[in-house]
Amino acid sequence: MSLYDQRLEADLDAIRTRLGDIGEQVLQNLLHGVQAVLDLDPRLANETLIKDRAVNQATREIEHLCHLFVARHLPSGSHLRFVSGVLRLSVAMERVGDYSVAICRVARQIGSPLPDTVLHNIGLMSEHARRALKTALDGFLEGDPDAAHVSRGFAAQTAAVYPYAFEILNAAADSDSRPARDLFGALLVFRLLQRTAEQAENICQQTLFAVTGERKPEKRYRMLFLDGDNAMASKMAELACVESYPHAGSIGSAGLEAATGFAPALLGFCRRRGIVLTADDAPRAFADALDPSWHYHVIVGLGVDPANHCSVPYRTAALRWDLQEDASDGQPNAEELYRELMQRIRGLMTTLGVREDE
Prior knowledge:
Blueprint: H1 3-39, H2 42-73, H3 77-109, H4 116-142, H5 145-175, H6 180-212, E1 221-227, H7 233-244, E2 249-255, H8 264-273, H9 286-289, E3 298-302, E4 317-321, E5 327-328, E6 331-332, H10 334-352
Parallel strand pairs: 1-2, 1-3, 3-4
Antiparallel strand pairs: 5-6
Helix pairs in contact: 1-2, 1-3, 1-4, 2-3, 3-6, 4-5, 4-6, 5-6, 7-10
């Protein structure tokens, strides 16, 4: 190995070592912050608050090391991707440190012991989130893309606990005499632990990028268009979206009640456009479209408000589009309806960052 290569590897090792030290401190602060909540220990909370100052200083130092590395070596390829990843990780570490600080402040404010079920779920989410973060950090430092997949599994376990924990807090708010401030504090802890797991997922993506050059894929969405009977407008919106945005994700449609068949105006429109409705295509009821095992990112009600007909999942956005009424002899004008739908759909996709026919 040449002298230059030795110097380059030594500088990389210095950055790895510093990043590993920061990761260990951040994980320890997170552990102690959660422990302060579980034990209602203000002394531990205050000690952990002070330690976050060192994390902030260390992230600034590692950013300086990265800038020096770039200036000294003018890296390219995997070395440049690694340094770019470290800079992003330093931001993630500082954010997780801020989450720990917020958890410590909650610990100082809680005035009475939380319900055992709440404490259990805080401990469970904390364990999953910290394992996700540690596995992600180790994977990045070791250049191990397989660790990224393991970390994502732990992050998914954290996300799975959150809705259940939220319901427990709702139940406690209805039946418990504890101050609302304490329950709101517990809710904030749950959310910060969930955000920690999300930061771990971001680190996983940086690992894949640094090792393989794989970039984060475009976001894909699960969307549902809803109207009264799925005979015309909602099905046309589904067809238009799939045709113009084939890579947007999983697009479907439904009606509050399923019609016995599609409207003649829709069938004629499809024939003119060369759109083939298969034997599996039939009006579908809203109740059948709701799958408890996963959620829609967006439900668009066409003339109806989805929130009036279902309990909108926590992670779902429910929109309402009131379309213009334009029909002659009781038959809707399919071409005008299509144009209006496409105008609305383009606006929605622009907001979501989906490119047309990408």
